[in-house]
Fold these 2 entries.
Entry 1:
Amino acid sequence: MRIAHFQRIIDETYGERDAQRGLERTFMWLVEEVGELARALRGGDHRRMVEEFSDVLAWLTTTASLAGVDMEEAANRFGSGCPKCGERPCVCDSPRH
Ligand SMILES: [Zn+2]
């Protein structure tokens, strides 16, 4: 599934409710879901990890929509490798900053 398609589905599914909740409170839900992902990673159950990764992705995506950010555009920053050095694999001293 393309990222833009995923963002459109999330918008159609939750966009109205998320807009009513607002950006700040939706972002707090994202942070809570990241905490649940941390617990799933420690637990080691694969099915649970898939669920929590998908929840984090959905909350990240809906937060981006509320902020007016196109997730396809965001992902494209890494479309050719490291956005800083342009290499694959990255040769930066401290990657992803
Ligand atoms: Zn790099």
Note: The helical segments are 3-21, 23-43, 46-66, 71-76.
Entry 2:
Amino acid sequence: MLRLIQWLTRREGLFRVLNPLLAPFNPFLSEHRNNPELTWRRLRETDPVHRSKAFGSYIATRYDDVLFLLRDANFTTDRGENPVMKFILKLSRRDPVFSALLERNLLTIDGAEHKRLRGLVSKAFTPRRVEQMRPRLQTIVDDLLDSVSGASEIDLVEEFAHPVPVIAIAEMLGVPSSDRDRFKAWSSQLVQLLDPLQGRGGAKPMTQAAHEIFGYFEQLLDQRRTEPRDDLLTAMIQAEDGGQTLDSADLLALSSLLLVAGHETTSNLIGNAVVALLRYPDERKRLQDDPSLITSAIDEVLRFESPIQLTDRMAKSDCELGGKPIRRGQIVASVLAAANRDPARFPDPDRFDIGRTDNHHLAFGQGNHFCIGSQLARLEAEVAIGSLLKRFPDFTGHPNPPAWRRSMIIRGPETLPVRLS
Ligand code: HEM
């Protein structure tokens, strides 16, 4: 079934014919992929809480509405009551690995259970542990840049943006470097959990990867229980909050989630940053002349070309948003990317300005589900982009990547040919 849906979403001609039913929100067209801001702007200006009949949900695009949705207790990430999600959860219960992934997933649970799991993960995934990664990250990035230094042209996504975050999280968790390649392969399949429409082979490759990674983590966790180390897996085993600890299913689901949530997102941030530097040579020069701007430059990329374009919430009871009646159980998509270009919040929002101050973008969400990995993602991107510019100051490439990812949720170049010298 999923395979068929994935196949259908690739038939652009079909979605062109169906456009009258889908417009103004038709994420399956290349126009949207190439420049989603055009869709978001039209919605923000003409129908900021838009009811998409085709998707059966609302789409919110104004900064204030998106912020409200992310913070308000009446809107939940737990979509258990939504008929589509009910069906998926019922199917997933046939498979213990899948059901652990869905039912212990911070992104899709809420309330007391979310608070318990998030509290325990936060005891292990601390700012200190992330900051300790800085020298290792520099080595990871330098090694990757060394490995491509002989080539005149590389695919920056495949050879740089993609490996940096997966190696980083693997090392943080405590995965031995000899297992990195297997780990990378699983991660590429599991990423479909963030957007099932993105893949090609239906649910099978994702399910298989989930089983393999659970089996792998099971062994590694057993090892860490008998031989603790200074790594994130050990820290999660030892995490304790008011007498509570993480059980085996929690640990398996959370380790996999950290990999899934941190991989594709951060690799797209790195890819988007390189595209922005190619498109805006004056801003690139500004950064090269003053590398201390790297922190605000990465935040500007997050605002300007948000790697996660939108996230859903479900209404717990009937309410109103932007004058539209929302019924209990209805889904509202909060378009982070649209909020981040809202002129009511950001002066001159379509200007890419690496020195922008007052840049309170929503690229990492807000409220109870605010991204746990934001500090790590920023650090990875800062080290990756800072080092790339230092090592290959004259790199060139086309300002328009050959293709953007086929996803309505994830934004980033599919490939990015770059000449290093
Ligand atoms: C540029 C990179 C990243 C972006 C744009 C990003 C974006 C987000 C967003 C928007 C949310 C909130 C979703 C919602 O409210 O529905 C989120 C949650 C989350 N992120 Fe990230 N993320 C990034 C990197 C990472 C990394 C590196 C990790 C970990 C290694 C991570 C782990 C998580 C987790 C576990 C959650 C769930 C938190 C919760 O629901 O309580 N993310 N992320």
Note: The first helix runs from residue 2 to 9.
